[in-house]
Amino acid sequence: MRWNGIIEAYRRFLPVNAKTPVVTLNEGNTPLIFSPRLSEMVGKEASVYLKFEGLNPTGSFKDRGMTVAISRAVEKGAKAVICASTGNTSASAAAYAARAGITCAVLLPKGKIARGKLAQALICGAQVIALRGNFDEALRLVREIGESYPVVIVNSINPDRIEGQKTAAFEVMDVLGDAPDFHFLPVGNAGNITAYWKGYREWKEAGISKKLPRMMGFQAAGAAPVYYDKIVRSPDTLATAIRIGNPASWKKAQMAIAQSNGCVDIISDAEILAAQKWLACNEGIFVEPASAASIAGILKCLGKRACKQCPLADEMRASLLPRPVKIVCTVTGHGLKDPDVVNLQGLKTVTVWPTVDRVIRAMGL
Ligand SMILES: *Cc1c(COP(=O)(O)O)cnc(C)c1O
């Protein structure tokens, strides 16, 4: 059957009706890719799967929430939408607004947006406003503007975004037949961890699934308000998509972690870069730095530096893991969005004169 996007696929779980004009770019239905090497590292009878959200139409999971938010905005007669963004929300909002034929304004922290994401927002005709401030300040302005002007906010403070994003959990359960035992993902504004948990709970309550996963959230060490339980005034990390110091869904993320008996932990920028390279070199999957945070999270849980409360590490040590254990790790955005970060990986091309001899030598044969 033809895939027509997440609203068509999961309509009865979403806040839409027969009259809602569906604005879709056929988002969702992203692959759940088995990771042989991560599975082997976790242990016998373990399966680790990567939900590759970088394969959505604009290259991140934001499209799932945006199709619902923009469809509902158009249903309400909105002529303009606005968002604050670390990059991917703006890329997605710009594309779906273009599709709907409405105006889109995006507020971005100046100089802190990956090059690909900025290009996406600009080419789709969004009004791109660079703010001399960070994401948290941009979101505060957007909230104020939304209160007094006729524009719809399409940040994840708009509940339609969370509703759309929970469909990723549905897709995981559709493929695996039930929820996994653990779900790893990066945490920035904390909308996605909130959305997955909502999706898993809804299907359990509806009797469609039997299990609930433990939610394992990872923040960059320089932007870890949930981990430290404290607002971070000047968040800092090269993973710009999670460079957030005062997340909108903070309380809901804490609830997801507590209710699921999961955990939140931090990883350094060096660990993020190492995980990005590891995933590309070992599994052939190129993700942006924020997405590599979830991989860095798994690698940390498996290593000697696992955090004290890490249930995965504890249970591995005590051989308490359910067997066979299933782990899903969301990789949230495509690596092509942030080409400049590859420079930080210290990778180089080799330049040679055009002779067979030189090429063979450069190949190391
Ligand atoms: C938005 C985003 C995140 C963070 O998700 P939140 O819902 O803000 O926690 C992580 N990775 C990528 C690629 C993103 O675009």
Would you count the extended β strands for me?
Answer: 10
Helix content percent band: 40-55%
The stretches of 5 or more residues where confidence is low (pLDDT under 50) are none
Bound molecules: pyridoxal-5'-phosphate
The count of helical stretches stands at: 15
Indicate the proportion of strand residues. 5-15%
- Main sheet: strands, sense, barrel: 6 strands, mixed
Please identify the oligomeric state: single chain
Structural class: alpha/beta
- SSE order, as H and E? HEHEHEHEHEHEHHEHEHHEHHHEH
The largest beta-sheet arranges its strands as 1-2-10-7-8-9
Compute the CA-based radius of gyration: 20 Å
- End-to-end distance, in Å? 48 Å
Question: What sort of overall outline do the alpha carbons produce when their principal axes are compared?
Answer: globular
Mean pLDDT: 95
How would you portray this structure in words?
- By secondary structure, the chain is an alpha/beta fold.
- The protein is built from 15 helices and 10 strands.
- It has helices spanning 6-10, 36-42, 62-75, 88-100, 115-123, 135-148, 159-165, 167-176, 191-205, 225-228, 250-259, 269-283, 289-302, 311-317, 356-363, and strands spanning 32-34, 46-52, 80-84, 103-109, 127-131, 152-153, 182-186, 214-220, 263-267, 325-331.
- The strands form 2 sheets. It has a 6-stranded mixed sheet with strand order 1-2-10-7-8-9, with helices on both faces. Strands 5-4-3-6 form a 4-stranded parallel sheet.
- Strand 3 (80-84), helix 4 and strand 4 (103-109) form a beta-alpha-beta unit.
- It is globular.
